[in-house]
Design brief:
By secondary structure, the chain is an alpha/beta fold. Helices cover about 30% and strands about 20% of the residues. The protein has a 6-stranded mixed sheet, with helices on one face. Strands 9-10-11-12-14-13 form a 6-stranded mixed sheet, with helices on both faces. A 6-stranded parallel sheet has the order 17-19-20-21-22-23. It starts with a strand and ends with a strand. Bound molecules: zinc ion (ZN). Zinc ion (ZN) binds near residues 62, 64, 241 and 447.
Length: about 550
């Protein structure tokens, strides 16, 4: 039992309490200290919350668990700055991993050494002359490799690649070490003797070579790293946003070991080149994985890219690229047909749509599916919604579509606010409060490993969203609306509101005890709070 707590149940019918009793995997009572104390037996374990906030476990509604876990196992270039710090990180990692055929770092800032000194192979040779080493930029669009890696990958003399990809060469005709985009980076990544299966779910494919027992063991460990990381942040449910059957099988092995310490939904990823008959694989994943902790039932689709690179699909041209509107990854006809067919099969749809044209097409697809197929409780979702045309604002609530948004992605500097979109369209950029006020369901998340997974950091971001351009509406939400988007609404999106997302008698015992009272903490300090204890399915999965 938890007593002396500031319990925020997230249940609108009984929002507050001071004590919660748990038995086995269930919440057995929620009430006052006296009421809960009266239930105690000789073996009851008591946790005095000392006034700290006790909440339902957080629901992370958009995450990439396998890649996030993998990211934790490589050289953490995101945590270093300057040559000496990078040298220490590389040296420590090389010592700890003598058998890795490629030393790989991730998360580097483009100015990791100094603003005016880009990484190159000579700098990396100075850190590590004898083993292949590559460092990826935080956005995965650039990597830098040392001479050993370039030689082993056959890139040292440069290579002709399709437009948009480049092995950058210097005046001597040799590769400088800078590799631009996927086709330039891939030959180096293929040097790895560990990992490599964590990103297959993004392309919707299964491992091209059947994984060995050693591979499966390695992947189980990587996923467990991700699960433990999430538990430390109070997360007890996650909606994964990439997936394949292999990932589900490995997760089921973890479940059978008793180490699946979060509820997980894993989608099938439908890509533009696939025939709709491939949805048979999605239906099979849905049929074969149906436990309280591991299920599928959802299809992920990318409709466009991102604003920064001009690949988000816009209704009107970008302000910084005359006439350019970005590209839709599906034709309208193909996408609508896919949405109708997935919906007909009874699965949920999650669509990556960042530009306002992509968001509109996503909603058009959902509208077409609702017209074509029998009425049902659909809860389809749109991911990101960084740009929205005002004519589409009311359609989320009208169509019952969930807005799945990432507060930490909103601009944190003035110069990011209007780049590419201009001040007028910034009115409907990351417009989560406008969307919430139409009555639509809002679910919040991080998109980890794109940004850190911490829901507390996300809560702070959603509550303190700054207006960088005068005249833009206030998109800040109050604490309770934000908490709902990280708990109850996330459970609703996963059709698990009868099991988790609120603290009520009979619910699964998924909860998070924070390091203080969140209602008494200034909004701009909430990100500094910690999660002191995470309970998942009645088990303590994290304790500070
Ligand atoms: Zn994502």
């Amino acid at each position: 039992m938890f007593t002396n707590a500031s319990v925020l149940t997230m249940d609108p019918k009984a929002p507050r309490a001071t004590a919660v009793a748990v038995s086995g995997d269930r919440v057995t009572a929620v009430g006052t200290d006296a009421e809960i104390e009266a239930l105690a037996g000789p073996e009851t374990r008591r946790i005095d919350a000392k006034g700290r906030t006790l909440l339902p476990g957080f629901v992370e509604s958009h995450v990439h668990l396998f890649m996030g876990g993998y990211n934790e196992t490589v050289i953490r270039a995101d945590r270093v700055s300057g040559m000496e710090a990078l040298r220490a990180a590389v040296t420590d990692y090389a010592h700890a991993h003598p058998d890795h055929s490629l030393l790989l770092g991730q998360g580097a800032d483009y100015a990791i050494i100094a603003p005016d000194q880009p990484l190159d192979r000579h700098l990396l040779d100075a850190l590590c002359p004898d083993r292949p080493l590559a460092i990826m930029a935080y956005d995965f669009h650039t990597a830098w490799a040392n001479t050993a890696a370039l030689t082993a990958a056959g890139l040292l003399q440069g290579r002709d690649l399709p437009r948009g990809n480049a092995v950058v060469t210097g005046p001597d005709g040799k590769a400088t070490g800078e590799l631009q985009e996927k086709l330039a980076i891939l030959p180096v990544l293929e040097l790895r003797n560990v990992g490599g299966r964590e990103s297959l779910g993004m392309s919707g494919i299964e491992p091209p070579v059947p994984p060995t027992e050693k591979d499966r063991l390695e992947d189980r460990e990587t996923l467990k790293v991700g699960l433990r990381h999430a538990a430390r942040h109070g997360i007890t449910s996650m909606h994964n946003m990439d997936g394949n059957r292999y990932m589900l099988e490995v997760l089921r092995e973890i479940e059978e070991e008793g180490e699946l310490i979060s509820r997980l939904r894993v989608p099938f990823h439908l890509t533009p080149e696939m025939d709709l008959s491939e949805l048979d694989r999605a239906s099979a994943m849905t049929r074969d994985f149906t436990s309280d902790t591991l299920c599928s039932g959802v299809v992920k689709i990318f409709l466009d890219g991102v604003i920064a690179s001009g690949t988000a699909a816009m209704i009107d041209p970008y302000t910084n690229r005359p006439g350019h509107r970005g590209d839709m990854l599906f034709t309208r006809e193909d996408f609508i047909a896919a949405a109708v067919e997935i919906d007909r099969r009874g699965m949920q749809i999650a669509i990556h749509a960042i530009g306002d044209a992509a968001v509109r097409l996503a909603l058009d697809g959902y509208e077409a599916a609702a017209k074509a197929n029998a009425p049902r409780d659909r809860r389809h979702r749109v991911e990101h919604i960084e740009m929205l045309h005002p004519d589409d604002l009311a359609r989320f609530a009208e169509l019952g579509v969930v807005a799945s948004m990432q507060p930490p992605h909103a601009p944190v500097r003035e110069d990011e606010t209007t780049v590419g979109i201009g001040p007028d369209r910034a009115r409907y950029a990351y417009a989560w409060r406008d969307i919430a006020e139409t009555g639509a369901t809002l679910a919040f998340s991080s998109d980890w490993p794109i940004v850190p997974i911490s829901p507390l950091a996300g809560i702070q971001a959603a509550m303190t969203r700054r207006n960088w351009v005068e005249g833009l509406p206030d998109q800040r939400l109050d604490l309770h609306a934000v908490l709902a988007a990280y708990t109850r609404n996330g459970a609703y999106v996963g059709y698990s509101e009868g099991m988790t997302g609120t603290l009520r008698t009979g619910m699964k015992a998924d909860l998070a005890l924070l390091s203080g009272d969140i209602e008494k903490t200034a909004a701009d300090r909430i990100g500094e709070m910690e999660v002191d204890l995470t309970l998942f399915d009645g088990r303590i999965t994290h304790q500070r």
